[in-house]
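Query form — protein HD domain-containing protein

QUESTION: What is the three-dimensional structure of this chain?
INPUT:
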Amino acid sequence: MNKESIVSDTKEMVKDKLKNEGTGHDWYHIERVWKMASRLAKREQANSYIVELAALLHDLIDDKLVSDKGKAITEVEYWLEGAGVSSSDTERIMDIIQTISYKGGNGRKLSSLEAQIVQDADRLDAIGAIGIARCFAYAGSKGDVLFDPELSVREDMTEKEYREGPSSAVHHFYEKLLKLKELMNTEAAKEIAQERHAFMEEYLMQFFEEWEAE
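ANSWER: The structure tokens for HD domain-containing protein are given below.
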């Protein structure tokens, strides 16, 4: 099977698997990450085949979506083998999807340009207008309130603490989203992130004006 067919089949599989997902990690999120990653791969002259497959598969092992991460990893590996992806390419793809998350890499440097690109594309979808919409969708899915002025914001708060402890949608901006601009890897992503970050700052100014009924 040629690479174009493998990407196409993987796209259909992921689309079917995530079509009813309700936390902001649905198929349309995957599609945007895939498109952005493909765009960045061309600009950075990376391996587009590896980038596209990793972008399409990156959320299938996310512990926000699966209860058994080990089983999910095995299922993705099985899919790649069945689709005809070589063992060396499978190893590269699995390394990417296991290390690009906000908490997954534990701060270690990503092993390849392809990993940096997929991570940038995923993080770009977490900021800007779409990022704001996804933030509120995710907060609602975990039962968080819109905003709680009684809750403090800690700059060192981890993603795990946010997911498991009391928080609010607006607090998540400070816990994660406003930090992402400085964490982009590629120059192309840094340029896009500047504009999306500025949009979020403007949104928060408007939000707090309305919160105080000004």
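ADDITIONAL NOTE: The chain has ten helices and no strands.
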